[in-house]
Amino acid sequence: MNIPEQYSDTISRSELFADIPPDMLADILDRGRRQHIKAGEILFHEGDHADRCYLVLKGRLKLSKLHGQGKEAIIHYVEAGAVIAAVAVFKGKRFPVTARAMGAAEAIGWDRDAIMELISEYAQFAINLLRFAIDRIEELQTRYLELAVEQVERRIARALLRIMRQSGRKTGEGIEIEFKISRQDLADYTGSTLYTVSRTLSNWGKRGWIKSGRQRIVIINPHALVSFSETD
Amino acid sequence: MNIPEQYSDTISRSELFADIPPDMLADILDRGRRQHIKAGEILFHEGDHADRCYLVLKGRLKLSKLHGQGKEAIIHYVEAGAVIAAVAVFKGKRFPVTARAMGAAEAIGWDRDAIMELISEYAQFAINLLRFAIDRIEELQTRYLELAVEQVERRIARALLRIMRQSGRKTGEGIEIEFKISRQDLADYTGSTLYTVSRTLSNWGKRGWIKSGRQRIVIINPHALVSFSETD
DNA sequence: CGACGCATTGACAGGGCTCAATTTAAGTGG
DNA sequence: CCACTTAAATTGAGCCCTGTCAATGCGTCG
Fold this sequence. Notes:
The structure is a homodimer.
Chain A: H1 8-13, H2 22-30, E1 33-37, E2 42-44, E3 52-58, E4 61-67, E5 71-78, E6 83-84, H3 87-90, E7 98-101, E8 105-111, H4 112-121, H5 123-149, H6 152-167, E9 168-170, E10 175-177, H7 183-190, H8 194-206, E11 210-213, E12 216-219, H9 222-230
Antiparallel strand pairs in A: 1-8, 2-7, 3-6, 3-8, 4-5, 4-7, 9-10, 10-12, 11-12
Helix pairs in contact in A: 4-5, 6-7, 6-9, 7-8
The structure holds a DNA duplex.
C-alpha cells in the first residue's frame, strides 16, 4: 500500500475523493499509475489517442488548444487536486487539449477500465467527477461571455484576478502568482497579443497596481483591478 | 404509467438513457415533472435558485448569459434529447445561464433528490450525465478557441455550419435552419454585432452561398462556407 | 560574458464596432 | 384585405481599439 505521504494533503482536499471513506483511498490510488512531469514537459498532446484520465497530484498544468499558424488558446490552468482528460474515459476519443506542466508536476492516471471499476464500486466517484465537469463548464461559460463582450484590458484584469485567486501567494509586496507566466501566456489566456498585454501591464505598473518582471507578476492592489474590471 | 407516445423517439435517442433498460424508463420518467414552454418563454433565469435539472423533450432552447448594458452571449443552442442545468443537482447553486424556448418546447425536470435516487438505482445514469457534461466542455473549448483566435466572418461561417449540422433540414433550396434566428442572435452567438452579421450574410447572399430573410437562413452551398472558414 | 528569450515601446493600419437613416417584411385589427 | 404598427434588416460613414511589424532594451542562464 502506498499513499505517498507528501500528497495526502492534495488527496484529502481534492473534490474527487469527497465523501469517499478514507480507507478506500489506498485502494483507489493503487489502481492508478503515478507519473512525473518535468517543467515544460507535456503530459498529453491534443489529438493523441486518449487512454487515461488524470488527477494532478503536484504542480500546475496548462491546458491549451492549438490553431494553425502558431496561434494558441489557453483553456485552463489546473492545480493539484484537479481531474483532467475525463474525455478519455467517457468518450474514448482523442484528447481535445494539450497538457503542459508549468513547473515540475506529478499526476496519477487511471485507464478506462480502472475508472469504470472504481465507479461501480464507489458510486460517489461518478458524482465527484460530475462536479468537476460542471465546474469546468461554468468557468468556460463565464470566460466565453467575457471574451465575447468585454474589451481586452478588462479581460486581462479579470484573468489576472482569476489566476491570483487560484494560484496567488501573499508576499511582502503583495500577492504573487506562484508560477512562471509570460506576456504571451496571458495573451493566449485572454485572446489577445503579447504586445497589448505588455502595454497594459506596463501601464498598471506605473499606476502601482502591480509589479511585473520576466515571467513574474505581483498584484499590489487587487481592489484597483477589480474596480477597473467592473466600472463602466 | 405514462411515457408520452410522442416523445418516445426523443427519449430512446437521448444519450441520457443509453444502456438503461427500456422497462425502467417509465419509472424514471414518472419521477420527473413535465413542463410546457411557449415560444419565447423562459424555463429558468440566470441567477435563480437552481432546484431542478431538465431533459428537453421537444423543441429547442437557447442558453445565454447576460452582461450589463444589454449585452448577451449565447452559450449554447440545445435540442430535444439534451440535458440542461445539471448544476442544480450537483452544485446546488444558482443557474449560470438563462434558458429560453426558441419555439414551443417541452421539458421534463427532476429535482435533486429524484436525480440522486435515480443515480443510486441506475448507476449508468451518472455516467450518461457525465457524457453530456463532457460534450459540452468540448464544444465550449472549441468555441472558446475560435472566439480567441479567429476573425468575425470566419466565426460566423463556423457558427452557421455548426447550427446547420445540429438543426438543419434539407429543403428544395438547400439546408434550412429549423428555428427562427435573427441577426442579433447570430451576433450574440459569435461575439459580434448585428450589423457585422447583416453585412456578412448579405455578402454571402450575393455570392449565392446562402439565402436569408427575416429570422430565416438557408444554406445553399455549405462547401463554400467550409472552405471559407478554413482557407488561410 | 555572451547569447538567447522575454519584454518594451513606437508607428501604423485596418477590422469591426458605433451611430444614424432607411428599407423591408411580418403581424394585427378594423 | 388593406392600412397601420412594429420589429428586423440593410447600408453608409467614421473612427477607435487593438493587432501587426520593427527596433531596441534587459535579465537570466549556460
